[in-house]
Amino acid sequence: MIKSLSYKKGKCDIIKMMEKSKTYIFIDESGKPEVFSFKGVNLVEKGQATKFLILAAIRIEDQLLLQQKVIDFKGSLLKDKELTSIFSSAYALDSFHAQSDYPQVRERFYNFIKELKEIKIDVIVVEKLKCYSQLKENPGKMYGVMAGQLLKNICHQTDQTEIVFSRKDSKLKLRKELEIEVERIRLDYLDKHPRLNAELSLSYQHNPHYTHGGLQIADYVAYAVFQLFENNNDFYYKIIKKRIGKIQDICNKKYFTQGNPLQLST
What we know:
Blueprint: H1 10-19, E1 22-30, E2 52-60, H2 63-78, H3 81-84, H4 103-114, E3 120-127, H5 133-136, H6 139-151, E4 160-166, H7 172-192, E5 201-207, H8 213-231, H9 235-240, E6 244-249, E7 254-257
């Protein structure tokens, strides 16, 4: 209640709190950060691990609106009898997941993402064998460092930022290690760019991807870019490419934007 917050000059403080802007950033990946097995075998060279790790970030201010739009769109698909007639008994479309969804569902959700004008999309591409040895030998560190690289120049643009990682595990130690790596990269970036807002309120969350539509969109975006780099398949990327603000191919020092678009032959 507002009354409970009242104190000398309290109204001004409350108004300032209400005026503060907040951004939500949802992050998911496609591909895995592992390079070596426990025995030291290079799994990428053996064809037993992906060559690329893709991280996608979805930014939005009104996360409740985004969640409702995804829920409503899912509801519209479930009412489509022609579409649902192909579903197996084991498939319920509880949430959108690019790797396991039917191709018909996948294509429709990509077209849904294409029309979301309120979101901003950033992607980082990691060619794993070109990373430093310490990253190739530590998958958790690779993920954390690259998440930090993705976030460092997009998480200082509003007074409050909430970063939501799509994580299946619930181990506190792994979550803290991820946050430490991200913060290390972010604070180093702040030191080099003193004009950025260093007083913002920043928080981290770790939730399964099915808990929010923003994570499901991040999953789909990462999957589309992964298919392009890993398998030279641009079918899904073509649908959403005009919605992606930036793709950073970090190991090859390349940036792709709307003015410098990514091509299949790149």
